[in-house]
Amino acid sequence: MTALDACAAGLALLAALLFAVASVVQRGAAAAVPDEAARGSHLVGRLVRSRRWWAGAGADTGAFGLQAGALGIGSVLLVQPLLVTTLLFALPLEARYSGRTVTTAQRQWSVALVGALALFVCVGQPTAGVDRAPFAQWVPAGSVLVLVAAACVLGAGRRRGARRAALLAVAVGLAYGLVGALTKSVVALLATGLVPLLRGWETWVLLAAIGIGTLLQQIAFGAGPLSASLPAVTVGEPLGASLLGVVVLGEHIRASGPTVVLIVLLVAVMAVATAALARGSVRAPAVDSTVG
């Protein structure tokens, strides 16, 4: 691992810590909203009056800045998988907040996730591709992503429950995966000046994806049990971003022969461990539900 890669990894881990703080705070605010106000503009109206939600938004903003810095010097394939360590930071924070203890199963899945991540970085040695790609290269992958996300939103229906939460969360994960991949391009534009940044189509698509993803995330958190929504968001974001990094930005993993099989197994372990930790992190006793 080069010095730049190590620096990118460090920034990604700091971003994960702040994302964990934001997640714990904002999930508490969204889950506290009554059923009748947990949709669309009604939900947003309740959340923007919550000091708790704004505190989480501040942590989210700082985390995104660190993520952007990491993507500016490191590959999407390196940075995005490391962001799943958000769960490792969120577990003790939520345990303290809810007055419970981290379970043995959660500790075991944490070890599995850390081990798989470490091996993935060491064995795969993710390499950077290009910072920006022509719009035409984004169209095929972007179109599939948008169509799948739209199908999830339409299929979610309006009745609150686990199915609605899970489908909305898949759309959120895809939106945030697009944000992760586009952030690298926007950081490259920013380095060339304000005018190129404002002229670049990536900037405006990034802002749209952030806005849509944030809205859908709050709706998903309020639509049903967090055990249904959080795993889809947490697994979907790095997978979506990494696929775009490979397909669009030309990043790749240095692997061949048996190493490819090991990389596939490590990715599977990371996905399963992340989903298990996400489910476990929201199976906690109810906490104070006062919004504000």
From TrEMBL:
Sorted alphabetically, the keyword list is: Membrane, Signal, Transmembrane, Transmembrane helix
Highest taxon above the source species: Bacteria
The transmembrane segments are 70-91, 111-129, 135-154, 166-191, 203-223, 230-249, 255-278
Signal peptide annotation: 1-22
Q: What is this protein called?
A: DMT family transporter
